[in-house]
Amino acid sequence: MRLDSAAKPSVTAIILSFNEEVHIERCITRLQPVCERIVVIDSFSIDRTVEIARGLGAEVLQNPFRGHADQFDWGMRAAKVTSDWTMKIDCDEYLEEGLIAQIRRDLGSLPETVTGCDLKLKVIFKGKFIRWGGYYRTVLTRLWRTGVGSVEKRWMDEKIVLAHGERHRLNGGDLVDESLKDIGWWTAKHNHYATLQMIDFINLEHRIFPLDERMAVDANANARRKRFFRNILYAGAPLYLRAVLYFVQRYFLRLGFLDGRMGFVWHFMQGFWFFMLMDAKIDEARRQIAAYGTEGFGDYLERTYGIRDAVPVASPEQVA
């Protein structure tokens, strides 16, 4: 899929990596037809991630990992992006052929009023396309005019916020999320994600750290709707019961059971276990705060989860 660089759109892709030798080649080779530059921001991998990435022509910059938002923000600054467009993509994601063709065909002809492009997310879990349960409706802004987009300062579920302009939906194909790692890695990752979600939910309740509230006024209606569901409806529902109700509506009312055996594993683990674990961590953190106050919350996070300075770094103009 290597093409002459002159034929490629003016796009710089930024990829965050840590021990991703199983994914990095697939990710980069699917980016090469649409990117004039690929920059991997690595957190000092100890496998062959860096070797493979450089062998494929990608640039590699290394920085200690603190959080997804901070790492990506650091990467954009360190890479000194000069292309017309910037793309954000994870190592275990890749572009479908139809999406590649549409980006090559249409990106250069979009009107100046379009400053961001939305991609539809397709999750493949253990070889199974997760079509049902409402999950194949996720649309993400992952491509934007350089200088217009920035990442939210959150510990989890961070979105790309556009300073101005409108979004254009690219429908030629999907952005595919397909991890090739084992279930032990998956559960360990989601255990960590549950901790990060807990920090964000506790911060909603107590405003311990600065809040980045730019998404509340962003033009991305889909992201604002999901954020409303998460921060208002879900956050206001009874602890633990909300995890049960979320799974019921996703698996039964939204027909998640049609995804078959592997679909059941996905919906149960990601749509029930993960949310129940998150609530258990929130419950535990609430008891900690009730006993010792919010002043000791940072020490609690470091002592319990090894997380230091639990606030994403942000400049004053980025945080409301």
UniProtKB/TrEMBL annotation:
Residues 13-104 form the Glycosyltransferase 2-like domain. The keyword Transmembrane applies. Keywords: Membrane, Transmembrane, Transmembrane helix. The chain crosses the membrane at residues 232-252, 264-280. The keyword Transmembrane applies. PANTHER family: GLYCOSYLTRANSFERASE, POLY-BETA-1,6-N-ACETYL-D-GLUCOSAMINE SYNTHASE. This is Glycosyltransferase family 2 protein. It comes from Sphingomonas donggukensis.
